[in-house]
Design goal:
With about 375 residues, this protein is α/β, with parallel strands linked by helices. The protein folds into 3 domains: about 130 residues, Rossmann fold; about 170 residues, 3-Layer(aba) Sandwich (Rossmann fold), CATH 3.40.50.300; about 70 residues, Helicase, Ruva Protein, domain 3, CATH 1.10.8. Helices cover about 45% and strands about 15% of the residues. It has 16 helices and 14 strands. Strands 2-1-3-4-5 form a 5-stranded parallel beta sheet, with helices on both faces. The protein has a 5-stranded parallel beta sheet with strand order 7-8-11-6-12. Strands 9-10 form a two-stranded antiparallel sheet. Strand 9 and strand 10 form a beta hairpin. The N and C termini lie far apart (about 60 Å). Pfam families: AAA_lid_14 (PF25601), Response_reg (PF00072), Sigma54_activat (PF00158). This is DNA-binding transcriptional response regulator, NtrC family, contains REC, AAA-type ATPase, and a Fis-type DNA-binding domains. One of its GO terms (biological process) is phosphorelay signal transduction system.
Length: about 375
């Protein structure tokens, strides 16, 4: 049952509104507050799905109440109740975030329709937030070690913003998982996340890949083609291994970040883009800057937020959890019976020097599932997981 709070100083109007709303298929639980101060106290103590608030009230007017509600619980839709002389103020409250306003005396159908629509919107907001919290299993970050908790906490703070993030760390540590979690928990999650592996694209093609080209701009350019920045418009672009990008392409990326504009290869026409940029590298960009291979101005544009992903050797407490996680996935993928790992086997694996990090651990788990006994022992680890 949806819970509604009605804040109205005139008792007669409160009774009428409550009767109209509460009688709607008996699906609404309506509570009353005779002024804004009492209403705010109730809002602090209870969770409401919708609030109806009068504009003209003693002690605290509806505009101030709305402002306080948006500070306390911004997700709750608020319908303002306006007298004939309050229409300009009602419009002002819409700009402040009110869902709608109802004029006195209220039209029955308009009132009920507005209440239903506001409650539907609240439900959509709740569902959307729940979906964002359920980050795709494919890109789930496994582990509860202190370094991983720190990264997850940073992501939760940074994801809702449009701040650029530079993700650093050795190969195989899961830098792309951080990027996907940042996108999935952001306001851009419904728009695309476009990935570009800068190390895998030849230097002579990287600009065309990122910014597109026009027909005839170079040999083989048989038609106009949009680039990755355009494809990611309104969403996120993830520039993986950005330390391998050519200086020429770096200059164009810098312009895109500074001006939110790109131009296709062979064209002087500017194209506006609205893209959040995430970047990752396994290189020491400070060293690359010193040796003239990376632009310092681009580094500072990208590194608004720095997230350092730890090596597996720095988060050994997560190895048992990762083994269980990978074993379940691999057994399902391979169509084989799930095997268990003995305490001795897990201890042995925790002692290894994981130069290949998470990627290497996954390969070793797969090898042990295929070659090891029903319960994988320390002996199996010594035989099949040796470096």
């Amino acid at each position: 049952m949806s819970k509604i709070l009605l804040i109205e100083d005139e008792a007669a109007i409160r009774r009428v509104l409550k009767r109209i709303i509460a009688d709607e298929n008996n699906t609404y639980d309506v509570e009353e507050a005779e002024d804004g101060i009492i209403g705010l106290e109730l809002i602090k103590e209870h969770d409401y799905d919708l609030i109806l608030c009068d504009i003209k009230m003693p002690k605290m007017d509806g505009v101030e109440v709305l402002q306080k509600i948006k500070e306390l619980k911004p997700e709750i839709p608020v319908i303002m109740i306006s007298g004939h002389g309050d229409l300009d103020t009602a419009v002002q409250t819409m700009r402040m975030g009110a869902y709608d306003y109802i004029s006195k005396p209220p039209d029955l159908n308009r009132l009920l329709n507005t209440v239903r629509n506001a409650l539907d919107q609240k439900q959509l907001i709740v569902e959307n937030r729940q979906l964002k919290k359920k980050v795709s299993k494919k890109y789930e970050m496994i582990g509860e070690s202190q370094p991983i908790k720190h990264i997850k906490n940073m992501i939760d703070k940074v994801a809702p913003t449009d701040a650029r993030v530079l993700i650093t760390g050795p190969n195989g540590t899961g830098k792309e998982l951080v990027a996907h979690r940042l996108h999935d928990l952001s306001e851009r999650s419904k728009a695309p996340m476009v990935e570009v592996n800068c190390a895998a694209i030849p230097s002579e093609l990287i600009e065309s890949e990122l910014f597109g080209h026009v027909k005839g701009s170079f040999t083989g350019a048989n038609k106009d083609r949009a680039g990755k920045f355009e494809a990611a418009n309104a969403g996120t672009i993830f520039l993986d291994e950005i330390g391998d990008m050519s200086l020429s392409a770096q200059a164009k990326v810098l312009r895109a970040l500074q001006e939110s504009k790109i131009s296709r290869v062979g064209s002087d026409k500017d194209i506006k883009v609205d893209v959040r940029v995430l970047a990752a590298t396994n290189k020491d960009l400070r060293k690359e800057i010193a040796e003239g291979r990376f632009r310092e101005d681009l580094y500072h544009r990208l590194a608004v937020i720095l997230i350092q992903v730890p090596s597996l050797n720095d988060r050994r407490d997560d190895i048992p959890t990762l083994i269980t996680h990978f074993a379940a996935i691999i057994a399902k993928e391979q169509g084989m019976a799930l095997k268990t790992f003995s305490e001795g086997a897990i201890s042995k694996l925790q002692e290894y020097n994981w130069t290949g990090n998470i990627r290497e651990l996954r390969n070793v788990v797969e090898r042990l599932l295929i070659l090891g006994e029903k319960e994988i022992s320390a002996t199996d680890v010594e035989m099949f997981a040796s470096k």
